[in-house]
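Side project, low priority. Logging it here so it doesn't get lost.
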Amino acid sequence: MKLSKKSILGIALLAGFFFLLTVTIFSYHLSVNGNSPGIFAPLVSYHVELMVVVSTLGIAVGAAVFYLMSERLEAKSADIQVTGEMLLKFMSDEDRKIIAFLVKGRGIATQSEVSHLNGMTRLKAHRAVMRLLEHGIVLVERVGKINKLSLEPALLNALAEVPAEKD
């Protein structure tokens, strides 16, 4: 796994913060027992102030790590949106309508509901659903006399980011 410079910086910030926190707790524990070494004497004398400084540093480190990692998440979200848009461009209008309807319904609908979409008949809906099933885009589950359609979970996640088309 390749780590970027920002990831390494984030890990280093967290490690430094935890090291400082450990030293602070260790020095406070020594002062309570009464055997504080000379090097930790300032830490023991000003332990309350040091706790405030460590808390402030903790907030700053948390904000810095969040900022560094949020850029990576935004980039991944943009990639997912582009992938979803590209996928929709390769589909027919009927397929796009069905996919958009499934995304609005959180990935689940019945074939009967799909056949009631604008410009869609039962035959067109059936053929489009079979085409999508053949390509592995939707899953069809027979529930009595009803076909329950569900969008492939990976596609649902990718398409949930894509802005909805206007009908």
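Brief comment: The beta strands are 108-110, 138-143, 146-151.
Revisit when time allows.
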